[in-house]
Amino acid sequence: MVRKLVILGAQWGDEGKGKIVDLLSENFEITVRYQGGSNAGHTVLVNNSKFILHILPTGILHSHVTGVIAQGMVVDLDVLDSELTDLEKKGILYRNRLYISDRVHLVMPYHKLLDRLFEKKKGIGTTLRGIGPAYMFKFGRKGIRMVDLEDEKRFHSLVEENVAFVKDICEKVFCESHDLDVEKIFENTLVKYYKYKDMVCDVSRFLLEAEKSMLFEGAQGTMLDVDMGTYPYVTSSNSSALGLSNGTGLPPKFFADAYMIGVAKAYTTRVGGGPFPTELTGEEGEKLRIAGGEYGSTTGRPRRCGWLDLVALKYAVRVNSLDGLILTKLDVLDSFEEIKVCVAYEYEGSKIDYFPSSAETLKRIEPVYETLKGWLKNTKGIKTPKDLPAEAENYIRFIEEFTGVPVIMLSTGPRREEFLWLRELPVKEVKFL
Ligand code: IMP
User: Fold this and answer.
1) Which of ligand 1's atoms lies nearest the C-alpha of 301?
2) Which of 21, 262, 377, 417 has its Cα between 20 and 30 A from that of 2?
3) Distance CA 318, CA 12 (A)
4) Whole-number pLDDT of residue 108
């Protein structure tokens, strides 16, 4: 029986994790977000309501599930407030089943301002949600944590110090003026804090002592991990499995018996700058973008699209020690006569079969493709493995053989009910609650 399930993005984010977490969290008592912040956009369609959750754990949509915002996240209280207000409007009650770590760092207005200024200078295409600067402050020991709001006087002086510091950066480095107002920031933050104060607690202790089934919901994807991804074209948190322990405050051993699932699209997308070996810039890329509706759920930006990169996917399997994959959006490939998959890279005249550490190397490699026959049949909404065209089955087998892990489930559309299990779960005693 799976008591701890981890769901991670196995590519560059936007793999469709929101829908999968929504689906599987029904079987769990607690769901946890543990890194990132409002840069994430987990889209879930329930009946006729569309939810895009940026900060809240997706499991909160189930009334019996407790949601946890753990310490590795950076939280913008304005975004949290608007998400919770939206839930209320849609009739979802969350009081007494949402906990927020007192150790989370706050994303403040000056972080968003800095994000914009940094992007103007030498941008990588961030979501402009202040994520990078909030983590910079955290690791530079200038951050403000939720627990700091308990003491208003101290909080006020921290805001004062930070605003003075940012003002200097604006004026001296960027020669820009700013409209940061200490009192406004102070008051607005406290108003939001007092609204949700009763949810703030020591989440790591709560989780350690809970003895309940838990689902850990990764945001972004492995290739955007600050250490394991395509640095510096990454987000500022550990969005691979590496972020689990520091993001929750739970010891690494806690996750030793967790079941690890990677979510991957049947092709590849990326938003923002950075190397993308299998990117298609011509007609085929446009065809994928249109068929897949590939526009960012947080920023609305068109996503870059390309063929499935199996070298990168195999790397994600290794980094996260994945037990299985869930494949999403296979139907987007329905109208392709031929489908390519990248099985190696060519670098300076030699073939390499590993994912390079350097983004500069990645920019210079050429993908080596294998071409598979398309199925030219509808797979959207199919309900049983028997309905899979032989060529689609072949495509899935190819992925499994290359990566060495089973594809356990297919998502066949955006709705909760559009999925099918492909495999008996490989570990005998694994059974979702
Ligand atoms: P940041 O996380 O806003 O600092 O952006 C850093 C990089 O990560 C940019 O390339 C973003 O497009 C990308 N990114 C951040 N969050 C997501 C996400 O949820 N999905 C896909 N890409 C993301």
Assistant:
1) 12
2) 417
3) 16
4) 98
